[in-house]
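On clarity, I found the account of how folds are encoded harder to follow than it need be. Since the whole study asks how a given chain folds, the encoding of that fold should be made plain. For illustration, here is how one protein appears when written out as sequence plus structure tokens:
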Amino acid sequence: MTPIDLALAGAGRTYATLHRAARWLPAVAVAGLFMLSLVPVLIVGSTKQPNDVSLKDLETENLPAGASWFRLQGDLREEPSASPYTYTLHDLTDDTRAVTVVAASPLPTGPIEITGRQGGPSLRGTFLSIQADVPTEPVRHDPWLLFAIPAVIAIVIVIGRLRGYPVKRRDGGSATVVDQLHPGERLPATWGGWISNEAHGLDAMSACQLEVACEADVCVMTITDVDGVRTVPHRRGSPKRRIRLCWTSGVRAGLDLHAPAADLVLAFDSVADRDRFARSIG
């Protein structure tokens, strides 16, 4: 079993479990899970945060549209000749580039990060004045991965709905040439799908014995299980597909085939058994 087989089988089983509990439950679960992801994203997205810009961006007005609240880094210096709590913030890469910073209470000087809005007169040698937040607005670390978890679970349920359970995966078959079934030989298998008016879901396949009797263009398959004996004619060349049937507990070789009075999925104990039966019916 490959990791993809296991993941798809897990998705299919998740959907099947919910669907067995109530037919409407998967749809409600998907809608609810998407809402659990969407609501916090909308709340966080609508909560304004300072735009992280440089002093050069401010000077050249290279700013996001509508930006009025900024996060700045620089060297903060006190201006004793100015009003109390008035500073200059100098660019760390160009000391001649500076803005005036006005605060409502003392700020630590030296390399610092501040947040604030444009406004007020600027000191000589500065090109702009910033009204600083006290305290500085902290950087927000939004748990986007946590927000996404419910949506990911919802997607798993949707994938499970699309793939079914067990999951059918294409299989190229064995490279070894195998013999056809001998006349009267019985092959153990399990069957799901429908024959005439009888149906078995793939999650409740029935153990059976298979026999094949072929003439020129038609093979008659005999399927015997605890409920009786059924015969299914299958024309050589009719659609059939080698598959892997993937459960969370393991994988079995399978054959997906269509006949005039049946739509069958057969699961076998080995790839060799599956390929022998496939070769026997053409």
Summary: The first helix runs from residue 3 to 21. The two ends are 28 Å apart (CA to CA).
